[in-house]
Predict the 3D structure of the following.
Amino acid sequence: MAIPTAVNGQITGAASPSGLCAMALGMLYQSMAQAMAMAAFNATQAQQQACMTHQATTTACVLALLR
């Protein structure tokens, strides 16, 4: 812990090396969670887009067969 001063202990504790390490790990975990969520979202969007393309192709082929 830091040298006792008139400043609130929570403030000096947050600025200590262990507090900075915890904040850095928290930011790292948040960044990784955001990246994983975006990867899952992008995979879902790609799957939906592929399904729409497949449906459009099937519709076009059926129309070509009926003509």
Observations:
- The longest helix spans residues 17-66.
- The chain has one domain: 9-66.
- Helices lie at 9-14, 17-66.
- DSSP finds two helices and no strands in the chain.
